[in-house]
UniProtKB/TrEMBL annotation:
Protein name: IclR family transcriptional regulator
Region (Disordered): 236-255
GO annotation (BP), single: negative regulation of DNA-templated transcription
Superkingdom of origin: Bacteria
Domain IclR-ED: 76-233
UniProt keyword Transcription regulation present: yes
A Pfam cross-reference name: IclR_C
Source organism of the structure: Bordetella genomosp. 8
UniProt keyword annotation of Transcription regulation present: yes
Gene Ontology molecular function, alphabetical: DNA binding; DNA-binding transcription factor activity
Length: 255
């Protein structure tokens, strides 16, 4: 196992800070604590370097050393998480994601949340095309019509048991809300896998063809994963699905 040179600076950052963050990033979901050996294995750093950094991280309450000699994340991270959540505004994060989706697909992009038996469009960026789906910010739509409504139902554990959650993290509908209008939607999660909303692309059904849907779904899932991370959620659902579906897509192309 090799170690990076002990310089104070690196191209684009400070080496000591990057190493400290690497230690924090070594902890994964399900880890109650990690030994020094496991930290060294995951970070590929010498134990002597890790111990020097741990001294500061423990002093700053970012890491806690347990009686058995192992380490776990400290209370300061929870404090920072609370500050982040209190400062988090959907207005800062959703519109840029929608604009990027519209630029990539040229279809209208929306973000919906649930209100009782309806879904409300909180944010909307229209397609640049003259023929398009006409959804406006503030529109209320029945929850049982359209891809976004189905996502808000299917991925909400209070409405759908986890055993019945769709295997793929997106839903496609055609003609449910309006004739000849199609949509594809994916869930967006916050901390503790709380469903924050549904990200959707919509437009004329003729433009949601079998040939275009794979590319469209890939871009939508990348956007949903990005927004989920920005809102403090776990994007592993999208990443694992993309990793699983990529070989199949390559196989179809090869055939």
């Amino acid at each position: 196992m090799s170690e990076e040179p002990e310089s104070d600076t690196k191209a684009g950052g400070v080496a000591a800070v990057e190493r400290a963050i690497a230690i924090l990033n070594a902890f994964r979901a399900g880890d109650s604590s990690l030994t020094l050996n496991e930290l060294a294995r995951r970070t590929k750093m010498y134990k002597s370097t890790i111990l020097r950094l741990l001294t500061t991280l423990v002093q700053e309450h970012c890491i806690v050393r347990l009686d058995d000699g192992s380490y776990q994340l400290g209370s300061m991270l929870l404090h920072w998480g609370g500050l982040y959540q209190s400062a988090l505004r959907l207005d800062d994060h959703v519109p840029p994601i929608l604009r990027r989706l519209v630029q990539e697909t040229e279809e209208g992009a929306s973000f919906f949340t649930r209100e009782g038996n309806h879904r409300v469009c909180l944010f909307r960026v229209d397609s640049p095309r003259s023929i398009r789906d006409h959804i406006r910010t503030g529109d209320l739509v029945p929850l049982d019509k359209g891809a976004a409504g189905r996502v808000l139902t299917a991925f909400d554990p209070t409405m759908t048991p986890p055993s019945r959650t769709p295997e793929q993290p997106y839903i496609i509908t055609v003609g449910e809300r309006e004739p000849d209008i199609a949509a594809i939607a994916a869930p967006v999660f916050g901390p503790q896998k709380n469903l924050r909303g549904a990200l959707a692309l919509s437009g004329p059904a003729a433009r949601f063809s079998v040939e275009l849907l794979p590319s469209m779904s890939t871009r939508l899932l990348a956007a949903a994963a990005d927004l989920t991370r920005r809102l403090g959620g776990d994007a592993s659902t999208f990443e694992s699905w993309q990793a699983k579906s990529r070989p199949a897509a390559l196989g179809e192309t090869a055939s």
